[in-house]
Write a structure and sequence with these properties.
binds NADP nicotinamide-adenine-dinucleotide phosphate; Rossmann fold; single chain; seven-stranded parallel β-sheet; alpha/beta
Length: 296
């Protein structure tokens, strides 16, 4: 693997990675993106990002990563199964003392808080993951924190809720007519627009306090049902039927039911105050409107 220096390395350079890369490049920084497939590598090349093709499930492919003094954004998801994140373990094991980054920003999830019965949640809330996908994210946070303590490299962890924006809308689900939960039984959902998230990642790299966690959210949670209804309205498709929890248990898949079992409202004050972020899309109305201007 080539180790030509780069200012920025994005590990798991998918949709959010490309948005971050665009912003970093517009400020004159060189950006490399680590992806698994050749198809994604071609996409990066077209976007002016130097591709590095490697597989976080194959430790030998990660030799000599160009991380020295670079800002690293770690956006790769954990594997689909289990309660740990061996990909994060593999990544940090590949970073030798003579080849250390300047800082690492990790996208984690607000799912690590588990169910908070609709309460407002600050970063002081102890994690209590209830789904394995959240346990894997918490394991990734823990691995990275431990590595940071021994390596001395500062890290910033962002706990991110549902991402929405162009390419992230649940159009297929809405067109299928799959039901949603009745509004009065629906949990809160928290969201961030993909473009705001990219800007928050950059603010975290520049101003994030090492060893602190930051909740990410637009600060305007509404119910999950409200989200599906509003997206249906802007897509111009019928609102999905609303059913009771009892019926939802019979008709919805395990994945969706696990989301419906958790309710919380994410407090984003630390993000706004300490990272100095001004949101372009502080609520769903603004974010959805912008999305359709772009999508055409
Ligand atoms: N969607 C949400 O609502 C939400 C909420 C909270 C957090 N997140 C997390 O936010 C992060 C960024 O999201 P995104 O939409 O930008 O994700 P994305 O578009 O799916 O990009 C993920 C990237 O990770 C790479 N990757 C996956 N497995 C890999 C492996 N084993 N080795 C090397 N690279 C690997 C993929 O490469 P290939 O394309 O080559 O496979 C892809 O470039 C993800 O971790 C996501 O799970 C999402």
């Amino acid at each position: 693997m080539t180790s030509v220096a780069t200012d920025v390395l994005i590990v798991g350079c998918g949709d959010i990675g490309e948005r971050v890369a665009r912003l970093e490049r517009s400020e004159g920084r060189t950006v490399a993106g680590l992806v698994r497939s050749e198809k994604s590598a071609r996409r990066l090349r077209v976007a002016g990002i130097r591709p590095i093709t490697a597989d976080l499930d194959a430790p030998a492919s990660l030799n000599n990563l160009p991380v020295k003094d670079a800002v690293v954004y770690y956006f790769a998801p954990p594997p689909d199964k289990g309660v740990t994140d061996p990909r994060m373990e593999t990544f940090v094991s590949a970073l030798t003392p003579s080849n250390l980054p300047k800082r690492i920003v990790l996208i984690s999830t607000t799912g690590v808080y588990g169910d908070c019965r609709g309460e407002w949640v600050t970063e002081d809330q102890p994690p209590n993951p209830q789904a394995d996908r959240a346990r894997r994210r918490l394991a990734a946070e823990t691995s990275l924190q431990r590595w940071s303590e021994t390596s001395g490299v500062p890290i910033v962890i962002l706990r991110v809720p549902g991402i929405y924006g162009p390419g992230y809308l649940p159009e297929k689900r809405l067109r299928s007519g799959e039901p949603v939960l009745r509004e009065d039984e629906s949990p809160f959902s928290n969201r961030i627009h993909a473009d705001d998230l990219a800007r928050i990642c950059i603010a975290a790299a520049r101003h994030g306090h090492p060893s602190l966690l930051y909740n990410v959210s637009d600060g305007h949670p509404t119910t999950m049902t409200d989200f599906f209804f509003r997206v249906a309205d802007v897509l111009g498709v019928p609102r999905p039927p609303a059913v009771t929890m009892e019926e939802a248990r019979r008709r919805l898949g395990e994945g969706m039911l696990s989301y419906l079992a958790e309710s919380k409202r994410i407090d984003n004050r630390r993000m706004l105050e300490e990272l100095g972020v001004e949101l372009m899309y502080p609520d769903l109305a603004a974010g959805l409107a912008s999305c359709f201007e772009r999508c055409g």
